[in-house]
Amino acid sequence: MTVNLGVIAGILLLAIELNQNNKVLSSEAEYNYMQAIIAPREKIAYDLEFAEFRLKEDYPTEVDKYRFRAVLQMKILTLEYEYKQMIDGSLGDHDSLREKWRNDFRDMYTNQDLSNYALVCEIWSSFRSSLSTDFVKF
Question: Do residues 132 and 80 lie in contact, with contact meaning Cβ atoms separated by under 8 Å?
Answer without folding.
Answer: yes
